[in-house]
Design a protein that fits this description.
By secondary structure, the chain is an all-alpha fold. The chain has 2 domains: about 10-55; about 70-100. It is built from 4 helices and no strands. It is elongated and about 85 Å long.
């Protein structure tokens, strides 16, 4: 295989693990999969770190933006009340501006 500029190394995880069990070097793995030696080294480092954290009982961090937590009933009511108060104020200001009280 020729060298790739970018690849999802995570997709090749089973192949890399199998080759590591067979005793292949990182350079041999990289050449076989068309990756750079550095890509394989980085993946192995991340994989080992992830396995250490799992063994220590530390849950993996979720990827991406955290989800918004759902509002409780009282929070929903307070938010709706604030919205209605703001809407009432806007309507009062509009009526006053048009001189139609």
């Amino acid at each position: 295989m020729g060298k790739r500029k970018y690849t999802h190394v995570k997709e090749l995880e089973p192949v890399i693990l199998q080759m590591r069990k067979e005793g292949k070097t990182r350079r041999e793995i990289a050449e076989h999969l068309g990756l750079t030696k550095r890509q394989v080294e980085k993946w192995v480092t991340r994989y080992n770190r992830r396995q250490e954290r799992i063994a220590a009982g530390i849950p993996p961090k979720p990827k991406g933006r955290p989800r918004k937590r759902p509002l409780s009933n009282t929070e929903e009511y307070e938010k709706e009340i604030a919205r209605l108060q703001m809407e009432n104020q806007l309507l009062r200001d509009f009526l006053q501006f048009t001189e139609r009280k």
